[in-house]
Design a protein that fits this description.
Elements lengths: L4 H17 L1 H11 L9 H19 L5 H17 L4 H21 L4 H80 L6 H21 L10 E4 H19 L1 E7 L4 E4 L1 H19 L6 E10 L2 E8 L27 H11 L3 E6 L4 E8 L7
Parallel strand pairs: 2-4
Antiparallel strand pairs: 1-3, 4-5, 5-7, 6-7
Bound molecules: adenosine-5'-diphosphate and magnesium ion.
Length: 380
């Protein structure tokens, strides 16, 4: 049953008069119940908006309001809530408190029956519309902010990669060729003068230098993809690397415990894997240096489902939770002489081999997990 419009209008006018008589009481009640954060920079505006909403509802009762007007207030409130950095839940709660109080007052008026129903429906519909506009707008603004931050993060990541690429190309060319030739001549010296002193030390230092330079090579586009993949016996490669690191291990007084499953083979670029194992191990050795005694590194290699897992764990300090992803970013380093590209390169290599490089770190142990498919195929 629909009411005669002029009768409805008359009822609305009576109700508005009733509401206006109770206006201070109504607004005070609302202000007492709403959630207002101490740090809300628009505290006063929240109260003012409550009043605007009340005016808007009065206009709704008289059907003299357009959607644009509701939308305008909702958008203004949404922007203020974003600026004040307030949870949108608080806002929705406050609006609904207003709705409940208003409806309680309407119920206290003399209106009954169908006119009362129709008024309550109108009020509810308007509150719903207002909330819808405000929350939608709030979400849009927040999403846009997030998008802007992501663009910034990606941009600075890309900038770093560009610099790294440019540095690597020139750097690698300038240093690698002379280095290769020095290593070659050092070998000749060794053959011609087997008893010459210091050649071991020179060779070791040159190998370390080569390792560092090769790290950069992997960050540039000229990685070693054109070299063929081969069957790599993982335990053997790990043993070779431990031999290479032997002087550093002794020097740092680290106790190494190994547990290698002996029959694991993967199809991979050996030099690239070597680079990964070396870097993860160097990092572990660096980490345990921060302990005064009882420095330990555990290396394991085993099969799990169709994966090969290589675990490198050390009892150095925990990696803080707030840098969890950052350690894989190029140039992130906490070391005085670090480059911060080691883990970045490792991750790239492992992912190129369709694997995963992750870690877990707590107070007692930091473990890096290199996970590779048993039959590795290149994804690039
Ligand atoms: N095993 C580890 N224990 C503690 N911190 C580590 C470990 N491995 C890496 N990190 C942290 O990650 C950073 C980045 O490592 P990496 O990319 O290899 O660069 P670099 O070794 O040149 O610093 C290190 O400086 C260190 O802070
Ligand atoms: Mg490193």
């Amino acid at each position: 049953m629909s009411l005669n419009p002029s009768l409805q209008n008359c009822i609305s006018l009576t109700l508005i008069e009733f509401l206006e008589n109770h206006e201070p009481e109504f607004l005070t009640l609302w202000q007492e119940q709403i959630i207002l954060e101490q740090n809300d920079i628009h505290k006063e505006k929240v109260k003012e908006n409550g009043y605007f909403m009340y005016v808007l509802i009065k206009k709704t009762l008289l059907d003299t309001i357009s959607d644009t007007e509701v939308q305008k207030l909702a958008y203004k409130v949404a922007q203020e809530r974003v600026d004040a950095n307030i949870n949108i839940g608080d806002f929705v709660y406050n609006v609904n408190i207003g709705r409940s109080i208003l409806i309680t007052f309407v119920l206290k008026s003399d209106i009954t029956g169908e006119p009362l129903n129709s008024i309550i429906n109108k009020i509810n519909a308007q509150f719903d519309r207002f909330c819808y506009f405000a929350v939608t707008r709030y979400t849009e603004i927040k999403n846009a902010e997030l998008e802007e931050k992501n663009v910034f993060i990606n941009q600075s990541h890309n900038d770093k990669l560009t610099i790294l690429g440019q540095m690597s190309s020139s750097f690698v060319h300038e240093f690698r060729n002379p280095l290769t030739s020095i290593i070659g001549f050092n070998k000749i010296l060794r053959t011609e003068y087997p008893n010459l002193k210091y050649l071991d030390i020179i060779e070791l230092e040159l190998d370390q230098l080569k390792f560092r330079i090769t790290q950069f090579l992997h960050t540039s586009k000229m990685s070693l993809v054109d070299q063929p993949k081969e069957q790599v016996k993982v335990s053997q490669l790990l043993e070779t690397i431990l031999e290479l690191l032997y002087p550093s291990i002794i020097d740092s007084d680290v106790q190494i415990t190994t547990e290698f499953d002996d029959c694991i083979f993967i199809n991979a670029h050996k030099d690239e894997l070597k680079q990964v194992f070396l870097n993860v191990l160097f990092n572990s050795i660096d980490a345990v240096q921060q302990r005064n005694a009882s420095r330990k590194i555990y290396i394991k290699c085993y099969e799990k489902e169709d994966q090969v897992i290589i675990e490198v764990a050390n009892n150095g300090p925990m990696i803080p939770v707030n840098v969890q992803e950052t350690i894989f970013e190029p140039f992130y380093t906490t070391k005085e002489l670090g480059t911060g590209i080691g883990l970045f390169v490792c991750k790239k290599i492992i992912e190129k081999h369709s694997g995963n490089l992750t870690y877990y770190s707590d107070e007692s142990l930091t473990t890096f997990y290199i996970q590779l498919p048993l039959n590795t195929s290149l994804s690039t």
